[in-house]
Amino acid sequence: MLGAPIWLYQLWAFIAPGLHRTERKYTYLFVAIAAPLFLGGATLAHFVVAKSLHFFLNINGDFNLTVGLPGYFDFVTKMMLLFGAGFEFPLIMLMLNFVGIISAKRMLGWWRIAVFLMFVFGAVVTPTPDPFGMSILAGSMAILYFGAIGVAFLNDRRKGRNQPAFAGLSDDEISSLDDYTPEPVAGASPVETFEPVEEPKPLDRRYDDIT
């Protein structure tokens, strides 16, 4: 987890060679945003794990349950990694918008599928069957996703994507076609005459007895 900025940079560096030179400038921006998001997801996982262990340890008052230290650290580390990776999904979608692969309108059209997948991911990742941890993880990812859509709309407006060529013209602005003077059309040239084509011969005259 401490090395998250390094391997996040390597992840984006793997994608960057396929981008244009002007698009590679987002590499450092991706790392600068991805590292805090990952740490935020890891912090949320620590909070959810604390609630989950409280649920498990008090599920039956007749037994005294103990948690081993190696298993606890392994469980908490996996949870923090999964939560941190989940927080990177909206950022990846936003960076795809910045490089021109996905538009904000398309991201908004996918919101139902995205929210459904977020809740499925939260249900699989969270350790307890209660909806507490799943809802917190999926809700946080949904908030980040809609925030990424808002930034994507601003980016599309700034770059003028999905706009017709006359979007910047007012209704009273004179069209440039008024200055266009068409060239006069010349007269048509006469059509050449051709000799008439002979009528086809009957079948009995085209082939001999052998054919």
Task: Describe what is shown at a glance.
The protein has helices spanning 4-15, 26-57, 69-86, 89-98, 104-109, 111-125, 131-159, 203-206. With 211 residues, the chain is mostly helical.
Task: Give the helices and strands, then pairings.
Layout: H1 4-15, H2 26-57, H3 69-86, H4 89-98, H5 104-109, H6 111-125, H7 131-159, H8 203-206
Helix pairs in contact: 1-2, 2-3, 2-4, 2-7, 4-7, 6-7
Structure explained in plain terms:
It is elongated, with a radius of gyration of 33 Å. It contains eight helices and no strands. It is 60% helix and 0% strand. The chain has helices at residues 4-15, 26-57, 69-86, 89-98, 104-109, 111-125, 131-159, 203-206. The longest helix is centred in the first third of the chain and has 32 residues, at 26-57. The model has no long low-confidence stretch (mean pLDDT 76). The protein has one domain (4-159). The chain has 211 residues and is mainly α.
- Could you state the order of secondary-structure elements as H and E? HHHHHHHH
Structural class: mainly alpha
Q: Sketch the major β-sheet.
A: none
The helicity comes to 55-70%
Number of helices: 8
Q: Beta-sheet strand percentage?
A: under 5%
Gyration radius (Cα, Å) is 33 Å
Number of strands: 0
Keywords for this structure?
single chain; 211 residues; mainly alpha; 0% strand; elongated
